[in-house]
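Write out a sequence, fold above all:
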Amino acid sequence: MVATASHMIRRNVLANVIGGVSTIALNLLVVPVQIRILGAEAYGLIGLIASLQVVFSVLDLGLATTVVREVARDTSPDRRDSRVLAQTVGTAYWITALLLGGTLFAAADWIAQHWLQLELLDPATARLGIQTLALSVALRWPTAFYGGVITGLEALTAHNVLKTVTTTIRLLGGLAVLLIARSLEPFLWWLVGSALLEVGLYAIVCHRLLPGLSLRPGLSGTALKRVWRFSLSMNAIALTTLVFTQADRVVMSRMLPLDQVGYYSLAVTVVMTVSVLQGFV
């Protein structure tokens, strides 16, 4: 039994290493080319929205981490005890995705006109960029939930294959679009399409690994009551982390030209790759 558990741990860590290193390598190879074709200002816009997506993750209230714990420790047949919670969290994630994406989409004009310090990009292009990125943010939002279920099931090989495949499609496909079109708008629509594919693949794998998970919306106050203390404690940790890792780019986007935010985002991306090493274990 101990040998089996040890083998599973080694396999999962190795899967995390391969998936993590592949993702890091793809980002380091593709991002400089993106900046060269799009320009630092356009990349700054993309980086800002990516940072906002991370900042908005506090709205998950620690539920993704809670799902990992509850699914992992559920020993009931077919994990039926955690299915109700998973269905509730999944419903909450999709509702949040619609509200978050809709709010960002509606605020695109104000952000472009009154928040960003634009030099080369005109406000209309920036507004379109924010609106399409809002769609991408909304579509990718539930992947954290599906990833939590897959992680809780200890199917980390499947999770890392998914992560590597979707990252490859998004980055290399986006690079191909840029090399052909040489403009921002087609690239942004590619991000939307790849986000739709990503959430679809995550949902399919999640439901195949946990067939009893209902696709229908459902909310259970009893399930949430059982885990809310742990969930909010995880959210408090996440909130503290976000203040120290993401707030700088949001503030800088208000104070500095967007191209400077782009260069800063690139530097942060390179430096932050070191921090993911701890996540392999």
Q: What stands out?
A: Residues 2-38 form the longest helix (37 residues). The chain has a mean pLDDT of 82.
